[in-house]
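Tutorial sheet, problem 5. The two components below are modelled jointly, 1450 residues in total.
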Amino acid sequence: MDFSSFLTSLGTSFVIFLVLVLLFSWLSRKPGNAVVYYPNRILRGLDPNENGSGSRGLFGWIGEALSSTEEDVISSSGVDTAVYFVFLSTVLGILIISGLVLLPALLPVAVTDDRLHHLPTKIAQTKNYTVLDKLSMANVDDKSPRLWAFLLAVFVVSFVSYYLLWKAYNHVSALRANALLSPEVKPEQYAIIVRDIPPVPEGQTRKEQVDTYFKTIYPDTFYRSMVVTDNKEVDKLWQELEGDKKKLARAEAIYAESKRTGKPEGTRPTHKTGFLGLLGKKVDSIEFYSEKISELVPKLEAEQKSTLREKQLAAAVVFFTSRVAAASAAQSLHAQTVDKWTVIDAPEPCQLLWTNLKIKFFERQLRQYVVYVIVALTIFFYMIPIGLISAFTTLKNLKKLLPFLKSILDEDAVRTVLEAYLPQIALIVFLALLPKLLLFLSKTEGIPSQSHAVRAASGKYFYFSVLNVFIGVTIAGTLFSTFKELQKNPNSIISLLAGSIPENAPFFLTFVALKFFVGYGLELSRIVPLIIFHIKRKYLCKTEAEIKEAWLPGDLGYGTRVPGDLLVITIVLCYSVIAPLIIVFGVAYLGLGWLILRNQALKVYVPSYESYGRMWPHIFARILASLILYQLTMLGYIGGKKFYFAPFLIVLPILSLIFGFVSHKKFYRSFHDTALEVVAHESKEIPNLEQVFRSFIPPSLNSEKIDDDQFEDALSQVSRTGSFV
Amino acid sequence: MDFSSFLTSLGTSFVIFLVLVLLFSWLSRKPGNAVVYYPNRILRGLDPNENGSGSRGLFGWIGEALSSTEEDVISSSGVDTAVYFVFLSTVLGILIISGLVLLPALLPVAVTDDRLHHLPTKIAQTKNYTVLDKLSMANVDDKSPRLWAFLLAVFVVSFVSYYLLWKAYNHVSALRANALLSPEVKPEQYAIIVRDIPPVPEGQTRKEQVDTYFKTIYPDTFYRSMVVTDNKEVDKLWQELEGDKKKLARAEAIYAESKRTGKPEGTRPTHKTGFLGLLGKKVDSIEFYSEKISELVPKLEAEQKSTLREKQLAAAVVFFTSRVAAASAAQSLHAQTVDKWTVIDAPEPCQLLWTNLKIKFFERQLRQYVVYVIVALTIFFYMIPIGLISAFTTLKNLKKLLPFLKSILDEDAVRTVLEAYLPQIALIVFLALLPKLLLFLSKTEGIPSQSHAVRAASGKYFYFSVLNVFIGVTIAGTLFSTFKELQKNPNSIISLLAGSIPENAPFFLTFVALKFFVGYGLELSRIVPLIIFHIKRKYLCKTEAEIKEAWLPGDLGYGTRVPGDLLVITIVLCYSVIAPLIIVFGVAYLGLGWLILRNQALKVYVPSYESYGRMWPHIFARILASLILYQLTMLGYIGGKKFYFAPFLIVLPILSLIFGFVSHKKFYRSFHDTALEVVAHESKEIPNLEQVFRSFIPPSLNSEKIDDDQFEDALSQVSRTGSFV
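Model answer (structure tokens):
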């Protein structure tokens, strides 16, 4: 890629970004779009324009984002989102401080050397060196004492990282403690999840078994238990019923509208009962759904009762009368062997993965390892297509492989655009396919809560993207030219990797640029959700509930955002000393990201769960992994320059490991367990435990018809039948 | 070593053993020796001869040992000793079952082959093959299909081991649970140790700080706290006082005796106050010590007060009103960062290592790693002297190195004895020096209880002895002959090790034989303690207390016994298939050990602490490590025979790791933490918590003069002075 196509790519991206920002400023002022641009505020019952973003000019949102505090973020989007911003500002801080030291120090050192001029003319021509190369370490001679500057720069970046990461861990730990000690009643703080309950003893019900067990251990603080049931059937019925209720409401709305607009007696809506509403008998919709509902309601009630009675599983939610008791119980060993009566702290009721609760202890272990193997295989085999894409889409190779395209590809405009975007777009599309698969795999491990599954998937995605994208592209990009060399000496892969890094710098610069300009432009402008919302409202939505569903925003989705950001950070870190200019791009990416996501967190997204910052240790570990990868790369690269003092760099990975170990030791446990001193600040008034209990009843079992006594009765009638032993 | 010297060694050992056993039978019947042979029974207030061991003939003790139950062992020597017997019977079981399968199967297969006859005559002569070699794998041809039998034998031994180890882990887990759930009040079950207490806040005492903290978290179950103090000074004074009291009692006893035996007015004992009682002024002993005591008592009291007031450390013992509360508290995270308010379950008061309690969290971590490094270095550098000993003491080398000894060494009798014993004795003496060093190092890690330190030292000792003795001797024994080969190809160390194993078989057979015959003979006959006791009683002891001190037995010392046994087991396992005859020796060693130590556990030794079987996971892990070493050795050895199916053996180490992982997961945590269901069986009556509290007061602070109120007062006056912040 030559310098002009790099500038083209950068320029086009920036123009797209500007257009999208202007579009956002214009569209977000229209009151009709408020539900798309301010759903978070609307759901919290605030006036979308309270701060007058409409009146404050085009860029009022920037001021608002900048002036917002961490408390604002927590109150609008929760602790998890606040932690995401701690992550962004920490890495932004690392890059800004590093940049302030490195750019003035390294660029002059690099540009005043002249290795590239000394190279044999033939090589220089084929490689097509650009200004970018002159500003990088590629321009520094082997064994040059100038390499001292670059070596020291690695130390600077590392120590800045340690300092800021330590501060961040401290800060997040305090954030988590503050959130947990708030006197507000959170049901999950009074509950624990019990799994691997042994078979019910003769003559006891499952509920009696659980109650006896916990009453013996916690005579004073045990409140109540709820046996987990297999809700597959009842969930299906309940969803069918809810669907029919919505359809009935819709049909009634259509009928009411037809009265207003058409004949005063109205047109009763009809539909066909067959495939997709296209075939079969034509029926009156209102009658049809009313009938179906009145059929389903008793069926659901019967299923609810039989579920409670006959489908109990070997898991339970146990409630305590105080937060300390629950927190302490969740951390203690209950049974003499670990595979019985295992306890964990309860997640929020809404994010409990009920179906995973029945999986047995050793099955969970086994599943975990099987999933790890599958993920490892996926990482390995994804490398092949990505390598191919990267190799095919370099223009030279395209021309070689598809000679009939040669005439088109020689057109200047086509060539520039293709060269600028094709590989990056292929990469981005490819990466978008993966998160769903990884989330599915993580849930298969038997993880009991949504947030934990997202964390697990996110961690896998990070390793995937770093290994495949960064290392994969770097290797594959040079694989075609140096394949024979590799065959001769398979151990040379590390030096090969280090050697090919500078050549791939422009690719990654473009990748980062594309990602932040176009990605964040789309994010801010919300063009896609806006269009979808307007289409839905115009043609599909008939009831208020349907319209609300159409604009309801998702959550920030940090499960995929974090690995994406981490990939960029890994790339920027690894190039920070080799081609220091990349720091500027990294800062722009992260700064813009901070700004735009701050806006989205304050006004748009609504968190779907809260894990009180449990994501942080994962993020921390992965930033550190990036840092170690960077340190190793630099060791290889500076070593490859035949610099005798390169082995000094060996201390850095070791230091990083020690730093990680100490931080992990000091802070990690309070992210896994709840510190008792934190929850000991109980609120004065006794919480409504009944309500805490009810909040854990799954919606499909939570019928108004089944009152609490029946619930209890049904639960205690179980297993007299003896069918679950 | 030829066959005759092997038989000589075996024969001599056996004769020594027989003599010692007869000596034991004869000596143990004399009533005057009862305190040496039955101290455990005497201390428990039982009649030494209750079971009529005196009347039941020479070998009555064997019947008693065989008929004793596990409960007998627990009641006489505690759970830890019972666990030691579980260990012995498990490995005994492994060897017996393996022997029953392997001996009839492998010996015929080996002896009917004839590789040794086919070897070139020259090699055969220098190697000096014996009957032992003919019965071993050394006699099986390379690539022979007979190797299938040996390969399968490895699988048999492994699966027998898995089965019995699993059963043993289950059994020990139950033993531990039973001991912990007993309604008997054990002070340590009501207490936890708190370390890393943050600096005292302004205006509070240390005691108030601790009390407030725990009262907030455990408003209902917190009983009381005891701040740990720096007792160095007060301990010194207290020991001086106790010593003087003993000396006074002794002087008075001498005076009283002199009245009886000499002049009716008696001779007042005198001594000199200078160096060792040899120099200085002559004084009247009774007056001197009385005076000294009356000086020391107020000094001690003053020091006690000032210790309690001014020497408080950042650690405390916290007491709870129930066992569940204490067990749960010991497992829970209390502070948001792990390096503050760290808790562990309290060990027995007598085994608390008070001085280690003040060491800070990260200092403990650091110390641990520093100790690991030191131990690793020790292991490495001990190898050199041991290798030298092993090389020098083979007779051939001795003659080569010290030619002037040639005439003596050529004497048959001298040669046989030297060949038979010299290397083994050198090894045993060498190994005896180490445990003290390792125990010291383990205590330096900052471990807070004696039993834990013993466990840690014991584990280190195992790795030390396996690495140095087994691998070291095996390598060093062949190093002199094959040094050049090793220089050519340093990677050959594994094949070298495997190849040299059969050559060293006689060495280890003799080692095992010597260890069990002579070692257990001495153990049973207690010749050394008996002689020491009689000398002391005759010439030194004047008071009853002194006599009791002279016969008081130690504990079983399983900290050094277990690694010793494990070394034998490792050797026997590793040779079990190569030279199956060794199994007979292994069974004899373990069987004899079981019998003799059973006798000692029931009648002699008195446990000095109880850790409720916490030693077991360590033992288990090390048996498994031996098994894996065995499997790897066999892989190398059978592979070295150029047997194409040898790679099948690779599954075994993997299986062992999985087995270890599953067992560890399932059982380990209940050895680290106390399962709540176990301690939930509280006794009906409320324990005397005051007594529980007082049992944790160190003896040097536990003066009758300082009553409880003063203790409390003194504690609460602290740090108003502000000196500990």
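Marking note: The beta strands of chain B are 191-195, 222-229, 270-272, 282-284, 312-320, 342-345. Full credit if you identified this.
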